[in-house]
Design a protein that fits this description.
The protein is built from 3 helices and no strands. It has about 70 residues and is mainly α. It has 2 domains: about 30 residues; about 35 residues.
């Protein structure tokens, strides 16, 4: 009989540990980024948006009011 309880314990250990790991991961995933990190990401987003607008203006000169000569 002691062998049977040892096997049962080994069989239950895997799902119990897996559930514990899932619970810990879900609990730790709800943290918010730091304010400095958020500010850095916002600054990068603003810079990238300006870059996209500049590329669009270079591509379509009519939108920027600049007349470009077609390349030969």
């Amino acid at each position: 009989m002691p062998e049977l309880s040892l096997y049962a314990l080994a069989l239950l250990a895997c799902p119990v540990v897996m559930g514990l790991m899932m619970w810990m991961m879900m609990r730790g995933g709800n943290t918010q980024p730091a304010d400095a990190e958020t500010a850095d990401k916002q600054a990068e987003l603003t810079r990238l948006q300006a870059q996209v607008e500049q590329l669009q203006a270079d591509r379509d000169p009519r939108s920027a009011g600049v007349t470009r000569h077609p390349s030969p």
